[in-house]
Amino acid sequence: MMATAEQPDWVNRVYCEDALAGLARIPDGSVDLILTDPPYNLGKDYGNASDQQSVADYLRWTEQWIDAALPKLKANGSLYIFLTWRYSPEIFVMLKQRMAMMNEIIWDRRVPSMGGSVRSFSSVHDTIGFFVKRKDYYFDLDAVRIAYDAATKKARSRSIFIGAKWLEVGYNPKDLWSVSRLHKEHPERADHPTQKPLEIIERMVKASCPPGGVVLDLFMGSGTTALAAKRCGRDFVGFELNPDYCAIIEQRLAALSRELAEPAAPQAEKKAPAKRRAAATGAAPKAAKAATKKPAAAKKLPAVKKAPARKARSVSVPEDVVV
């Protein structure tokens, strides 16, 4: 997906290169949101050795890309970072020295209760850090509120709750997000081992990037951040080392472009009231036309033979029945 004539040439592009080298393409102070899911250093195979470093090398590398990326943020920009409990304490300290931490969000992946470790508790969550540069950071809570269910609204139907704005607009998402991981059969699933659900990424984009703003992802993976940005009316820029993942991103973006280009299904035109149609067409309403016509002659009903007289019973007769 290429930039338009009104946009810089680096917008809406995914560069198949190392982010540390490619960040020089992006001007400082030009990005509204950094949303990224770096390697967790758990030994996974991403087609390179980025997830197979020593602890010291991993933390040193993390500090390098953080210092290279943060200048790209606008003054009121924000950052979301996916991490594992193994390294989140150290990386959170790095970021706290550079930004203000607003939330530690726990993503409950809804992992089934089977298998797992027998020497520790099973790990079923990812940790997400939410950081901002200054106090007047952009945050649109109304864009991500969650509607109350019918039972909650019914329980608060007493007169004291009538007109309560909070009951109508929904509630603020808590810092525990229970969203299922993407199973192999999931329609969103691409060929990537740590793909994140669109539901989570879109919530971050809507809350922390203004419409028309730019989202930066240094580790694009399967391209979910790019898709979420375009689906939400934002722009994106990102980097990915693995050429196979870059190809997946291109395919997913092309499929999204086709989906967005499809014309919406036409809706049935609503019938306007007779008076309004008459005013528009100059025709008299049906009721007025009917008033000018002569009443139709009443049809004679065939004679009905009288039934033999019976003893009257005290039965109540409806008013609309003639006896």
Detail the topology: elements first, then pairings.
Layout: E1 13-15, H1 19-22, E2 31-36, H2 55-69, E3 73-83, H3 88-96, E4 100-108, E5 125-132, H4 150-155, H5 165-169, E6 176-178, H6 198-208, E7 214-217, H7 224-231, E8 235-239, H8 243-261, H9 274-281, H10 286-292
Parallel strand pairs: 1-8, 2-3, 2-7, 4-6, 7-8
Antiparallel strand pairs: 3-5, 4-5
Helix pairs in contact: 2-3, 6-7, 7-8
Quick recap:
The chain has 323 residues and is α/β, with parallel strands linked by helices. The chain is 28% helix and 15% strand.
Please characterize this protein's 3D structure.
- The protein is an alpha/beta fold.
- Helices cover 28% and strands 15% of the residues.
- It is built from ten helices and eight strands.
- It has helices at residues 19-22, 55-69, 88-96, 150-155, 165-169, 198-208, 224-231, 243-261, 274-281, 286-292, and strands at residues 13-15, 31-36, 73-83, 100-108, 125-132, 176-178, 214-217, 235-239.
- The chain has an eight-stranded mixed β-sheet with strand order 1-8-7-2-3-5-4-6, sandwiched between helices.
- α2 (55-69) links the parallel β2 (31-36) and β3.
- α2 packs parallel to α3 (88-96), α6 (198-208) packs across α7 and α7 packs parallel to α8.
- The protein starts with 12 loop residues before the first strand and ends in a 31-residue tail after the last helix.
